[in-house]
Amino acid sequence: MDDIVEIKCPKCKKMVNRDRVVKKKYVCYECGGYFRVKTNNRIRMVADIKSFIPWFEDMPISNPLHYEGYEEKLADTREKTGCNEAVTVGQCKIYGEDAVIGVCETRFMMGSMGQVVGEKITRAIERATELHLPVFLFCASGGARMQEGIVSLMQMAKTSAAIKRHGDAGLLYCTILTDPTTGGVTASFAMLGDVIMAEPGALIGFAGPRVIKQTIGQELPEGFQTSEFLLEHGFIDGIVLRENLKKTLYYLIKTHQCKEGKYARFQQNLDFHFELNEIIKERSWMSLPRTAWEKVKAVRQVERPAATDYIEYIFDFFVEAHGDRYFKDDAAVVGGLAYIDGQPVTIVADVKGKDVKECQERNFGMPMPEGYRKALRLMKQAEKFNRPIISFVNTPGAFCGIEAEERGQGEAIARNLLEMSALKVPVLCILIGEGGSGGALATAVGNEVWMLENSTYSILSPEGFASILWKDSGKAQEASEVMNITAQDLKRLGIIEQIIPEYGGADKKTVESIAGYMKEQIKEFLEKYDGMSGEEIANRRYERFREF
Questions:
Q1: Contact 389, 426 (CB under 8 A)
Q2: pTM attached to this predicted model
């Protein structure tokens, strides 16, 4: 019987069976803690078998400061690790799709970035730009390499400049942050991804805990500078499990391959169309008439379907992205990538919540500045990769508290209006509940704007209207009748293009029918713009709002 080899888990400190850990992709089966992974093992996790071709392996040793003993240390580290330097780059296939990958190796001087590391990454990105390929970089580093001094510091600017040119070519650059990612790497190529993911529990930060403590004496709270901390504070798109890693990279490749003017590459699903037609036959197209005030009350009901409910039925699948990259991930705004019958799209949606706890977590659907900045980040990314944008609007308005003002609520909304007006991809905005004031408009500057049959869209709430004009918020019902806030009012005024039927009222019984109708209408919308240039799409949107 073979001897059982045990190793210590870095998280729970238990001795665990090495073979079982390897089978779980170097994840502890006792606590779920992640082991650090050697370069070759990382490549095997994501690249198709025998598809990886290494690049730039023969670069000479760099010792620009003639630091004593440095070359000997490099030679010794090469022998011990089997790696030529702290990063390995090359081309591979991921489920048959070509990509460039780079893997940082912490065993090689803690993955520190010297001239050779910066040069290999820069050359890899430059070659990826020439070959028109996406780049996935697995980051792990203690930061700049001290033995190379200021030359090491320059690698931060050099790699960032190469990423800018790669991005200007309309190509995907994605980083996966692993344990640890700190220092100059964090302040350069690690945090510049179009999509930034991280492994669970990874240490990520500009200054590491030891540096912070020794420099300014601060004790860091538990959980500080972890992947989970960064996700909460809006710095990364999400946390990816190793078991899902390869599939996630493949998904990202496929959703970032859209070409300008191609917005209706659908794969028809005949079974779905049959089911949809049968559902529609069973229901009347329009509901019984409701007063404006009845509609106001209806759209405020917690039971009314949320964007997340419609997304489940309209799109093949949806992967959420998080954060504004500056402050926080605002749960009142949900966004990410999806397919609609094979056509990639970007989704942005206001979400209120379905119970007291969720409503509190999502701030009752009232976005903060970081919510609008997250939405704009995703929309600009959609423009870069030629993905149409579908925006689901359902908010009583932007949050108006002290913290929102401190973080620039007005500027955030204004910036969205400015940037959305010129987006060079089709933008469709659908009001599914409340559309409250500038907070709703901030994600509703579309080529077309639709409303569900009983939804509302107004300059502010009826209560606010009555309070301002009549000095009596108790006259909200009367105000709602004169404000022209219903879908029918706005269609008559030319503010919206289409009314979506609710088949008696939006609820859990009708959500699938409403979503099915919306799906077919969304596909027709995208077909209108198939073949149009980005400039023409933006001009049409400009002219639409110019008419008001």
A1: yes
A2: 0.89
